[in-house]
Each structure stands twice: as structure tokens, then as C-alpha cells.
Batch of 3 targets.
Target 1
Amino acid sequence: MMNEMNKCPVMHGGNTSSGMNAMEWWPNALNLDILHQHDTKTNPLGKDFNYREELKKLDIAALKKDMHALMTDSQDWWPADWGHYGGLMIRMAWHAAGSYRLADGRGGGGTGNQRFAPLNSWPDNASLDKARRLLWPIKKKYGNKVSWGDLFILAGNIAYESMGLKTFGFGFGREDIWHPEKDTYWGAEKEWLAPSDGRYGSVDNPATMENPLAAVQMGLIYVNPEGVNGKPDPLKTAAQVRETFARMAMNDEETVALTVGGHTVGKCHGNGDAGTLGAEPEAGDVIEQGFGWTNPAGTAKANMAITSGLEGAWTTNPTKWDNGYLYLLLNHEWELKKSPAGANQWEPVSIKEEDKPVDASDPSVRHNPIMTDADMAMKMDPTYREICEKFYKDFDYFSETFARAWFKLTHRDMGPKVRYFGPDVPQEDLIWQDPVPAGSKDYNVEAVKAKIAECGLSIGEMVSTAWDSARTYRGSDMRGGTDGARIRLAPQKDWESNEPARLQKALSVLGPIATDAGASLADVIVLAGNVGVEKAIKAAGFTVPVPFAPGRGDATAEMTDADSFDAMEPAADGYRNWQKQEYAVSPEELMLDRTQLLGLTAPEMTVLVGGMRMLGTNHGGTKHGVFTDKEGALTTDFFVNLCDMAYKWVPASKSTYEIQDRKTGAVKWTATRMDLVFGSNSILRSYAEVYAQDDNKEKFVKDFVAAWTKVMNAGRFDIA
């Protein structure tokens, strides 16, 4: 008989990833985890913590002074290159911010997510665990008054300033998350740095890269420094660089400025075999305490460090902001060489000894400067070359262009400028910040509602217009939403998802009402949606007011970066039962993605979808999911009939279903997967059953109003 002392006291794998979870047993089940990413239970600071109030207590001047001192306070356990941590801190800030992608607004440095897997253990982030640990004494000192997210980006800014760059500015305000964003899609590969072919329709056509991805390989921030799939070819790399940076909303000039400015300081590390390094932080043993990539040589000296596998500095003076990068790139011929680690890198055919950078640890030794394949793309691509020549001739113009591009890179996912805090916030309104003028609050809201109620628009038309205006909000980068009424501007007014003809009809009615009242059209669009909801509530036999907060403004075309808004066009909207075309992922997964970007929970998604079906908001006026004979009344009929076993569900086509009477076979209603998932998924069904209960009709109305109001106010950073 087994000795009781030898029995394991917990279920095997119950607390580690070695155990099978439900999604591994049933991989085709709808995974709702993405809606629970930032549950407040994971936040050790508590639900009442207010970061903006903590920032008001921060001695910013003292913090910056300490950060400047850190740059040249070289530590024995991780000695600084040339006695300056600038290059390391810039790389940390860059790689935090550089994970941002325009397609869904995810990634970026706005949440301090580089602390967690997978980002903390990406191959491209090797040794950035050291940068974060170097910052720990400062984080410990200032505590809750500065977030990790702000500290990461500030470190990059201070590094540049300490080496001579006049930065464009800095805004505090990034609130930390406390749990990995493990459900963010970074690619389908199961292997780090797997060949990039699987991300493309054709790797020779970078535009065919799978959306929403921007990086070319799993585990990279941008492109492979050795060339496409590790094969040097600067012109092919140039095409990938252009596409990757465009997916971050950067134009060619910004792309060149960032490449040149990023490589003006610091170095690559590859003086040894990267395959001999220890495990990455997330795979390390407990004694590693969050450290990774341990060097088997047992030394942390810069000239023995291994990161990318490339080895060398780009410039003669790697701790000084100067024009040395362009001087070397443009005035030398370069040839392909191998680093000590065996990586492909470019080195000058001939170079004067004094133009070589000194060794990062031993100033008595000089080495050749190096260039990556992406650097050579700056020289060989005709457009990039022309910009480089312009920068080389006008260093001040280059410095200003880089400072602005760096500010954009590091602040892109923070949302509107009202979210920035501190003395270094630039006064200039930048188009990529989606500026919106202040709207009026001084008008008679009830009078406007009365006019809307008699304007002739149906409940469905009013609610759909408000919803379409609001659903653009993305909590990932704080863009979109009702503020600005950009639904009336290009490109949104022409999006297929917005039904341009129906939208124009609604705007032509609501516009004059806004003008007459002295209200913004943005406010009136939301008020119209509220009026529609209140009419439907009354038709259901209840009286529940829909809250409204005035003050939205109307943006102009000149305030709107139309190209970047193109990426925000919905491919599907489960709330309006619409999908543009068939995709590799299911309609219900697309609905979850939209829900998470809106900041909604699974119960809020459930109540909104069930309610929207009752209000006549389906795209194109289809009747899929309208399980009621009382359309226009905010009833629980969607849930009641979905859960009623008097009906059966029969496929009618590839994407639609019939709801048939079990006894007669008569078709009662039709549906899509976005309807039936609320009955088939065990979690969503549990929510649907709550609203199908006889005693929860009024609860449903109140819950719908709360979720509706949350969506209408998403992006309203001017209200509490």
C-alpha cells in the first residue's frame, strides 16, 4: 500500500501549465477568456486606486534627476556598454511601444505589459529583463506614484536626452495591467522565429501579411535584422520594413527617422553562440527569479553579451546623439560578413581606424561598425535613400523629425491628449491623437429629445446610427467612439458596415436638429439612440430612463487622419448580426474580439445582443435572430425563445439556420451563429437563461441600459 506521506497533496498540473485545461480538451469551444483579461481581482492596488491622483503627488523633477543618474551608474552585475545604459533603455522603451499595431490597436507600451509573458520572453526582447531590473530601485522609491508603463517609456526618453537629443515631450498616464494579455493574437506559429511564410499569402508580397499582425516573425518586434527569413537582401527587407511600419501608422519619413535615430546609439550583442544561453525568463527555474538568457561564460560584460547574434555598434560614438549613423552608412561601401555568433551582418569594406567604435568594455580596442539588413535597406531603397540624404544634409531637421516620430511611437496607444499628464506634454495638437474640439453642454437636452422623438426615424434607425458611431471605440489604444462624430466623415461615412444610404438618411434628419439646438451632432446621434431605446422600453411596459452626458464635440476632416481610420473599419459586427465575408475565424470569435475592444464583459455582450435583436438593428434589415413578434419592444423574447425546447435548430445554408417548430416543422425564425452561440456555449447559455426567467424582465431592461450607456460613453475621458 502506498505510503500516505508519498502522495501528492494537490492535483497534478493543477497549478501549472502541465495540466490540461478545458480548452485543450475541447479546442473548438468558444473561449471567452479574452473578455476576462483585466479582471479587477488581479489588481493588488484595489478598485479604488486612482493613478491620476497618484501622479499629482509625483515629484517629476526628482524622478527625472534619478533617471539621468541611472544612465551612467554602471552595475557590476550587468555592466553598461561604454558606461552608459542609454542603448539598453531605449531598446526597452522601443520594444514596449513597438509591439503596437494599427489594425486592432493592441500591443504598445501603454500598460506595462512587457513585464509579462509572452512579451517578457520574446527572443527579440532578450536581456530587457536586465533593463527592467535596473529600473527597480527607482520604481521602489516612487512606488504607486509612477507606473511601470510610464517608467519604461520615460527611461527611453531620458536616455536620449542624456545623450544629447532634444525630445519632443512626454506624457505620463499609462496605467499598469496586472495579468498577461495572453489572449492577444501574435500569430499562429508554435515555434519562436519560425519562417515567416505562414504569415503571408506570399512572402514576396508584404501586403499579404495576415491581419492584424505587423511583425514578420513570431517573437520579433519588426523585421528580421538578417533579412527576410534570415536571408540578406536589403531591397526585399525594405519592402517588409515599409509594410511593418505602415501597420504602425508610420509613413516613409517617420520610418527612416526611427530607424536612423534608433541605431544612432547603442549596439548589437552577438559575441558568442546564442544557442548556449539559458532559458528565457518565463521558462527559468525559481532560482533565476525572473531573469533569463543566462550567459554560460558567467560574465555580463558587454563584449561577451549575446542578444540578437549580430555584434557591433552602428556609429563611431554610440553614446552620443550625432549624425554618425548616416555618415558611415552613406559614405562607405558595405559587404556581408558573419558575426562571432554566425549571424549575417554588413561591415564596411574599408574604414579609417578613428571611425571605428571602441569596444563596449575595453576602450583600448576598436571594432568595425555594423549594419543590419534593415539598415542597408535605408541606403538601397530609392525612397528611403532620398530621405536619408535629406537627413544627412540637415541634422537639425532629422533630429526634430526623429523626436516627433519617437513621441508618436511611444504615445500612440495612449489615446487623446486629455489622458496625458505632466509638465512636458506638448501643447500642439497632433492629427494622430484624433483631436476633438470641446462640445457644448449648454442646451436643452429634453427639448432635443422631444424633436428627435417626432423626427420620423424608426427605433432601429436611431439605435443603429448611435451604435455604429460608438462601436469604433477601442480600449486597446483609446481611439474611436462617439466623441467627434467622425461617422459623418470619410472614411467612416462610406463603410459598408455603416450602411451609407441608411446612415445618410439619419444624419440628414439629425443634423438640423443639432444645429437648431446649438448641440454637437455627436451628442444628438447618441441622444437619438437613447430616444430609440426609451421608446422600446416603454413598448415593453417599463419606464427606465437612459442616462446621457452632454459635451461631445464635432471633429472636422482636417482633424482626422483618414488613412489610419481605414484600419478601424469593422469586418463584422455580431451586435448588428453582420459579417462582411467569410473568414478563417468564426463569426462568434469576431464578435468576442469586438466586445473586448469595447471593454465589455461576457454578460454585457449577452444583454446587448439580445436587446439589439429586439430593436430592429440588424444590418440590412435582416430578421436573423429576431425571435419575437414584438420587434421594437425591449423584451426578453430573444432569450425566452432561444431557450425554449419547443423549437429545433436546423442548418439552412453555410451561415444561416432555421428555427423550426418541433411538432409541425414550420419555420418560426432564422438565425446566424452569432445568435445560436448564446444557446450553445455553456457559459453564454447560463447568462441567457438568467434573462429568459420570468422574474428578470425588468432586470434585463436595466442591464441593457447600463451596458448601452457604457458603450455610448466609451472614449469620454472628459467625464468621470
Target 2
Amino acid sequence: MSGQPEVHEFQAETRQLLDLMVHSIYSNKDSFLRELISNASDALDKLRIESLRDKELDVDSSDLHITLDPDAQARTLTVTDNGIGMSREDVVGLIGTLARSGTAELRRKLAEAKDSAASEELIGQFGIGFYSTFMVADKVALVTRKAGESTGTRWESTGDGTYTIGDVDDAPQGTAVTLTLKAVDTDDHLYDYADQSKLRQLVKRYSDFIGWPIRMDVTKTVPPAEDADEDAEPVVEVVTETINSQKALWAKSSDEVSEEEYKDFYRHVSHAWDDPLETITLKAEGTFEYQALLFIPSQAPFDLFMREHAAGIHLYVKRVFIMDDCEELMPEYLRFVKGVVDAADLSLNVSREILQQDRQIRAIRRRLTKKVISTVSDIAANRPDDYRTFWENFGRVWKEGLVNDADNREALLKASSFESTNSADELTTLTDYIGRMKSGQDTIYYMTGESRQQVENSPHIEAFRAKGIEILLLTDPVDEIWTSSGAEFDGKSFTSIAKGAVDLDALDDADEDEAAKEDKARRAEEFGGLLGWLGETLSDDVSEARLSSRLTDSAACLVGDTFSMSPQLEKLYRASGQAVPKTKRALELNADHPLITELQSQFGASDDHSDLVPTAKLLYGMAVIAEGGELGDPAEFAKILAGTLTTALGTTQS
């Protein structure tokens, strides 16, 4: 090593995470080896593809492999690869600090986890596989040299909050991770990871399908030949064996692969520790030949909605790894799908730019997308518990497709489910909703909001509830967008109950009689003066004032135009930094409410209506608050309310 190694401290959250690993209570500590082998396999994949792209890269890629080197006497295990390696900056960025955010959230969830199985799923969910080595090791040392560079790097830590790092002049290309193993304690589910038979067992279980050879020096005793002297001793020799089969799982037929093998392969490609919710196999022959092995996870990764989230599909060409996050093979809203696609006819040095233009890739993408959608539809139809798990984890991202994938929108809607006023506990499909529609109802009614409670308490829903009309309760931010995109299902449009004029009389069992029509006309004329005055008085905030047919209990509500933005959508745009002009909405009044009848009485009793202005402003403010909105000037509203209450109590303000 050249020069003195430097001592650095981990980031605060990383130190907390290391403490969790060092004092781990997780039962399945075997998984650390799968994580190290997966990292080594990734490094070999990257070297192969880099050597194809950069012909001047000075590397030897003729015998790429992974080596396990246990030393029972020294109590060490070294996992080595001759892959792409890392620079000093890579080591500091990827290992010296926690490169991905979310550690605090992980620690909170770990504290809440009920058992070790739940904890293991969280470890994989938060993408911290390398740190799992501290579950079995008192010290971890890493020596690495990046392909094409002359100087290597040594990193070392005991997990105590610090690490050392320094340059190495004679480091071979690739990476070697050496674990100084903890003492064997079977009561703590800690096995002897320096034992060759144990390592062979773990490789067979977790990493048998790895495409690169995993080698280990094995000690064998060869008995004397039959014609040897009687005094001849057995010969002890060390041979290097490949201890994995290397057969690509996606190349096997489904009856050749066990469920456990699929689970282990899923964990390998996803770097997760949960079980897949569904396994999808696909083989296409003809013009475009390819094989695909895809997985729908049972848990959403913590970074599902982060901008830097990586795509989950690995691309191979004739079983040669090309890239591990091929965005071109799966639409963004299916980014939770993990797996591999092995195409037969692509070039080995294909670039992302070429992939974006390749018609074969586009055809594969269309087929994979439809297959995933149909699979989710089957789960929804036949496995309600699994479907609920899927929807709780991926429903929000699934609905992004309703905005971005018009070609598959109908199929996506069919496999979607929503909360509704029909049930407080169960979700409903659109097919079931349509089956319950009232006679004469030709549209799917919905309302958006920030929570179910907010929507259910909205004045807009009162008349619909009174008439037994079911409303979809949409509370995800993406709902604001797809419902405004002209979506239809089974020939039925979607209508917001908070926009436009509604005529619920058409849904009554009998047609509206003449007396009811005359009563409407009389009321419109009776309240005409008040409505006009309110429209002028509140002109800075409302487009007009009118009588409502959607209110039964509340005094007033605000209603947007049919194609206007909802307040929630305006808030989303402003939160993203976009300037959105304020949308004026109509103020609708309940002519049967005592407040409105009294306001009408006072309005008609005098030609001077200046003393009613505070009441008009209170009426508008109440409508804003009732729908969960934010007042433009809360202080003014509070002042007017205090004055009104004081007058109502018969006291005199000082």
C-alpha cells in the first residue's frame, strides 16, 4: 500500500445503520453471501459490456469469474471477482457513505417490524445489501481496482462508525471483499461461513443460476489406485471447482424450475429480499425471438417514486448481459416490474440511443406491457388477497398509465380498483360500479380530494348520497390528472360531482312533474336579486352565484366549470413551481337552508345591502373550508366571524 491510509467517519445515518447490522437480530444471515455474489456478478456484466463498447480498454476478459476463498484457521472468507472494479471515488460514494437516501425511514420501519422475516424484507426493500456483511463479520476489508486504472483502493471497517481508505499499487483488476468472520454461534443462527460444504450449499440455494462461474478450491482425498502398494497413502490434493450450474433460469421450461429457484432469481435481479407476488414467463418465436422472465414484487421499494429510481429489467442478447436498467423495455408506470429479457437478434454493442429507435425493442415492449396488464387482471379476478397487496403497493404508480398510455387505458382501468361510497372497507372495480348504477345514470361519478374523510364530508356529495348514487372517492394526486384526460370505461364517461351543473332529477324513478318545475322557476325568480348581488359582491372570488340541486344539508358550496382545474390540481401545479392563475368557481346556494332563507329575507327587506357584505364573505369562506380548501385571508375571515358572533350574542363590541 502506498502512503498512510486515511480514517473517515461514516455519515450519521450510515453509522446508525451499521449499528443495526453489527447487532443484528435477523435469522437469515445466510443472505449476505447472495448479496456479495450478486454484486460480483454485476461487476463482471459491466466489464463485459464495457470491453465491447471501448475497444481501447486494456482489460483481460477471457476468463471472467467469481472466487470464494474460505480460510477456516484464520476465520476469513474472501469473495473475489475480476470485473469492472471501482475507483477511489466509487468506493467513497458507494460504500463509504450511504449512497441512497431513506435510512431514517428504514430504521423507523425496522423498529416497528414484528419479526425477523419482516426485517429482512425491509433490508432488501431499502437496497443496502453490502451492509449485510456486518451481520456475520467483525471486520470487512475491500480491495479493488477499476478496469483501465493503474492504482487500486483498499477500504476497511469494523462497523464502529469509521472506515479507513488508502491507495494500493499492486491491486489486481476487480474487487475482493474479505470478511473476518464472527465466532460460530448456532443459537444466534450464525453458521460457519468458512466451511466449504456450507458455502457450496448456499451457492446452490441462492446463486446457482448466476451466469458466471463461481469457483472454490476444494480439498479432495484421492484413494490409492487398485494396483498400488499396500503401504500407499491416499493423496490429498486441492482442485478448483465451479460450484454453480450457470444455466440461465429463463432458458428453462417452467416445469424444470422450482418455486424456490424463481424466488432466489427474483432476489438476485431485484436486490430485494421479499418473495415475488407473481412470476411471468414469456417466449416469443417468429419475426422477433426473445425470452422473458418477469416478476411482480410483493413489496414496493422505498425509492419507487424517486427520480433516480432505476428501471427493473435486465437486457441480455443471446445470454450475454447488455444493461441492467433497460428503460426502453417497460413503460415508466410499470417500473416496479423486475426481471430479464433475452433477445436473439440484437447487436451486442447496442446503445441506449439505438434501443430508442429499434422496432424490435418497441414490439417487445408492447408485448411485455400487455402481458403484465393481463396478469394483473387475472390476479384481480381470481386472487383477491394478492390483488389487494398489489394495489396497496403499486396502485398509485399503476394509475400513471391512465395518463401516459392511452392505447392500454381501457385494460388498465379494468384492472384498477377504487374507494367508493358503496363501502367503507372494500375497493370496487369499475365493472362492479357500472353494475350498481342507478336507472338512467349514464356516467361514472367521482370526486377528488386529499383524503377519504375530506371527500365524504364535502357538501358536493349530499344530494348524491340522499339519492343513493355511488361516488368514486379518488385521493391520489395522479387521480386529478387522469380523470381530466377524457378517459372512458365501457362507453361511460367520468364526471366530477364538484364541476358543472348537475341534474339529479333524471335519475329519479318518476319524471319531474309540472309542479316541481314551476317551483324551480319560482325560486329562481325569487332569489334572482340576491344571487346577482352575491355574484357582484364576491366577484373577486366567484364566477357567479346560483341555486344548487346538489345540496341537502349545507348552506353553500363552490362548483367549478366542467373543464376547469380542481383546487387540488391547482395546488399540485403550484407545489411543483408552476404558476397557475386562480380559477373562479360558482357559488351554489341551498335555498332550503335556514341561513339562505334568512339572508334572502333580509336582502328583500331593504335596498341598502352593505350590512350583508360580511355575511356574504362568511358564506364564501364557509364553502371554502367545507371542501377542505385554504382561505386567502384567514385573519379577515376570523375577524368577520368574531363580529358576527358578537352581534348574534347581543353584546356590544368595544
Target 3
Amino acid sequence: MTSQRNPGMSLCGSFLSDEQFLCSICLDVFTNPSTTSCGHSYCIDCISKYWNGSTIYQCPLCNKTFPKRPELQINRTLREITNEFKSMIGVGNGTRGGGAGGRGRGLRGGTARHMGEGGGIPKDLIAELKKRLPRATQEPSLPIPCETQDSESVPPTPASTPLASSVPNQTMIASPISPSENAAPPFYLNRRRFTMIGNEISTRLPVCEIHHRGIVIYCKTDQVCVCPECETEDHQGHDTVTLEDEWMKTKVQLSESEKDVKEMIRQRIQKIEEINLSSTEQELAVERNTAGSVCLFSELVSAIERSQAKLMETMDASRVAAALQAGAMKRQLELELEELQRRESGLAELALSEDYIHCMKTFPVISSPPPVKDWSGVSVTSDLGTGPIYRSLAAEVEKFKEELLILAGTGFADSALAPSPVPYQPETMRVEDYAVDVTLDANTAHPRLLVSDDMKSVRCADRHQVVPDNPERFDRVVCVVGREAISSGRHYWEVEVGRKTDWDLGIARQSIKRKGKIEVIPSNGYWFLSLRNRNNYAFRSEPSTSVRLDLRPHRIGIFVDYEKGQVSFYSVDTKVHIYTFNDTFTECIYPFFSPCTNKSGKNDMPLIITPVYMKD
């Protein structure tokens, strides 16, 4: 329970409090006090033990850091005053109060007993304190309440927290109302004070640790917050204002600073999003380019492998053909040799014969030259037939180089897969960019051929039709040419061959021979691909070049680049390049079609010129 303080004690409480003689570490009256350079005092043993084992030396109250451990000296004046205070309240110089709680009650009780029941104040005590504590007669700072044994759980009572009067001998009337447990303590109780368990942070007006007065002044010169007495002692002549006024001025800048910080936050969030987006795009680009490059180089390797296989086949065929040619020439030479040797023997016999009549009859027959061939300019063909294959591969490699140069600058597009060095679409353009509408010229069709009304399909009939014998009509070769002449540029069309067993497709020169027996080879103006007996594909080159197709195409694409002198064939079904002729065109050329004979109904299906499907 709290008790009413004697009115006679108010004067003493107004300028003297036991809190002023307490060490903030041990919470007891000073023993050999020592004062740091920041103005705070502690028992010399307490502050020494507090710093022992530390590498950073700070004041426990204000947290000021010292560059090195201070050399402590006993504050003799404060020790004398503390000893005098101890003698006044009846505490021995060498004894402690037994802790914060016991000490607090003992000090307060001792003070009351020393003053007497009537609350009288010894005059010698007032004189001594006026001499040693001159600021005690000035306007007192905010008083510090007396601590109880459990200062955190028991709120201070009016008796233990008097408001000091500014006039000596003025009495203090205690409040008749005791604060409840939930009531907030008076504002002057909220101060920052160091204890062994940490700092108690004031949520209201902070108190100067030196003068125990409220910190309400801001020094612009030193940029520190001080109390009025600090301003008088340490900041005379400085530019000072009230703390509230300075904060109101500073607060104006708050919104601008807040905007600046928000803008910096927004920029960094945006940059993080940009980095995440760039990282995602980079991963997609890696995946896209990996797939594209694998496809690109796989097609090149496939093209080289196909060319190598063609070379092996062509050279093997050339070897067999050369061996057959050499064998035929040898047999003919051996026959001629036998005939000549036989005549040589006959002439030798005539020279020894004496039958003049027989000699005269036989000599003209034996002596006449036999029907032999002039072998002076004859030799076995040395051409292996690999030239067209090498030229075709060189063209494909050149296209591959062009693709690489384009990809070096642009890379693979988002929606595009890797282009092939031997693409299904000619060059690097899309098929539809070269597609042309090809129709058949019925005036050139062989009499056995039946051309549809839309001029888009042709098949072979069983017998000849009654048609005019035009100069441009073929009369021996079962074929027909298109109406559209090609004299420049690039052109592409597709023909449905279905499951026919035989056919010919390609181009023909305008001045080709159309009557009688024709040798369909490039030197005579024909460049086309042939199918015979369902599985035998060949190009009518010199000599004929066989080609192996793993999958039988049902639609053939023909591409012509007039300026480059190229005729290329593609399997539309598998999107595979089959073959490319390389030559020089000096006149108009026309699409060439031959459904071949119907083979007694086995090959009666038509050749159909189909539209080129537009691809996105």
C-alpha cells in the first residue's frame, strides 16, 4: 500500500532524490564513483567489470563508444557527496541496500526517519547541498520516481512520484486518487534507463541522462537533440530551435522522400521483371537454336551421305559399264583378228601353190580388205559420271553457306524450325512464292494420250486417237509438254503420280525433235526423272543415273531456276530433295510429262497436275 508523503519532505524531494546517487549497473548507492567523458557516473568496480572481456567500450546509458578503454579515476567530489548522503539517510559507507527493491525502500525510509516525523529539514543539510549542488536551487528537472521492488509490475503511486515545486519550501499535496493498474504512468516516468536486463525505451518524452530534463531543443549547428540545460551549458551561440518546430519543417520533405523511395522501389521491381523476362527469352532462344542447329546440320550430313551413296553407285555402275564396253570391243577386235589371220594364212598358201588357175580365182577374194572397224579413235570411256553429283552437292553446300550467313545475323526465328541445306522448298523462300499454274498443251500430245478438259491430267489409252498431225505433236514418244514457256525466273509445280508403275517428269527445250525415234538425254534438250517397273528411279543423264528412294513418292515437285540452269526434283510426301540437274539454258523450256504406256491396264492411272498447298 502507498502512504501519504509528509508535506515537509516536498522540499527535499524537489532538489534531492536517491536516484541521483544510484549506480545504473548495480542499482545501488555509488561506491567509489567514477565519471566517464560523456558525463555518466558508475561504481568504478561495476563499470570495470562491465567492460571486462569486451572489445568495444560503450557507455551503458548513452551508448557512446570510446576509441580505447578509458582510464577510470574516482570522482572524489561525487564520492564525498554520496558519503554525506549516506550519512543523512542512515546508510553505512561500506554497506549496500540489499538490491534495488530493498535499497529503494531502505533509502526512502531512512530519509523519512532522518527528517523526523514532522518532516523537518535540517538547515545544515540544505546549506551543504546548496554549496555542493548549486543546481538544486534552480528550476528542477523532471524528477525520477522511486523504484519499487518490482518496478515493472507495480505502477508508481502519487506518494512515490511527486512533482517538484519550483519554489523552495512549497508543499506538495498528494493526489487523492491512486492510479489503476491499467492507467498509463505520468509522462515524466517514461525515460530511457540502462539496467542489467537491457534498455527501457521511452515511448513519450525522452529525458536527458545528465540533467534529467526533457529533450525538447534541437541544435542545428551540432545536429543533436538536447535539453534546455544542455543548450545553456554546451550550445551557447548555436542555432537552436524547438524540436517540434524543426520536425514540422523536416516533415514537409517526408512526402518527397517517400515518393523518391517508392520510385526507386518501382524501378528495381521493373528491372527484376525485365531480367526474369530476358532470362526466360534466353532459355527459349537456346532451345530454339539447339533444335534448329541440330536439324540444320543433320540435313547437311544427310545430304552428304546421300551424295556419297550416289557417288558410290554411279562409280560402280561406270565401272561395270566400262568393263562391258571393253569386253564388247575386245570380242569385236578378236573376231576381226581371226579374220585377218585367216586371210594371212590363205595368202601364204597361194604363194606356195602352183595351181595358177586356183590362185587367180582365190587371190582377189583373199587380198580385198575385210569389213573391219576403224579403231584409231576408239577407247574405253573414262568418264565416271560423277560430275553432276559433285555439282549438285556443291550447289547444296552453297545453299548451306547462305543459310549459315543468314543465321549468323538473325538466328532461328521463333516459329521456324531449322531450314535444310537441301530444303524441300527451293532456295530459302517458301514454295508458294514460286508456284505457277501449269496446264497441258493438247496439240503436242502423242495420239495415244488422253488430256482432260481442264488440261490438268493425262493418261495413255489402248489405241491411237484421231488427232491432227501437227508439227509440234510427238508421234513416237508417248509424252506431252505444258503450255507455259519458261524463259527466266524461278518456277515450281507439283504432279500427282499415285501408284503408277512408269512415268517421266521434267522439262524439255522448245527446239527438241518431236518426230520419229528420240534419244531423251540433256544434250538433246531433255531433263527429267523416270520411273520404270514400279521401283527403278533414274535420271536421263549421260549415262543414266539411278537413284534409290526409301519411300515411294506419290507426288513429285519440280523446281526450275532458269538463270542458274538448275532443275530440281523433290518428294512432296517426305519433303526430301531427290536430285538436281545443272546445265545452261539458252532458249525457252517447257514442263514435260509422260505417263508412259498403260502396260495392259497396269499403268493406266493418269498424271495429275495438282495445286501447290499454301503453307503458313
